[in-house]
Amino acid sequence: MVYTINEGQLLHVWMVISCVALLRESKDPLIQSEFLTRAQILLTAFVVDLKPLHGDRAGSSNSAADPERILRFAA
Fold first, then answer.
1. Helix (H) / strand (E) containing 39
2. Phi-psi sector, 63: left (phi>0), alpha (psi -120 to 50), beta
């Protein structure tokens, strides 16, 4: 299935990557749990906000949308 993501969703993914990096650097279990919780919340919001690309099937590369505004994510 092919999904579309916007810049806001892409920012959430970037923030999750940052949280994981900070999680690995920290030695304090309390701080690690805070970063992990924040990353889980952002990933959940990202997945819930995914929208399937209409009329597109996995393996098809047709897109009626502007490629500069919508990124394609194949899952």
1. helix 29-48
2. beta
For residue range 18-71, list pLDDT tens digits in order.
988 888 888 999 999 998 998 999 899 888 888 888 765 555 455 555 555 555
- For residue 18, report the phi and psi dihedrals to the nearest 5 degrees: -65, -40
The closest of 26, 73, 24, 27 to 52, measured between CA atoms, is 73
Q: Is 67 strand, coil or helix?
A: coil
Kind and range of the H or E element at 71?
Answer: strand 71-74
| Structural domain span for residue 56 | 2-74
Report how many domains make up the chain.
1
Cβ atoms of 69 and 5 closer than 8 Å:
no
| pTM for the whole structure | 0.61
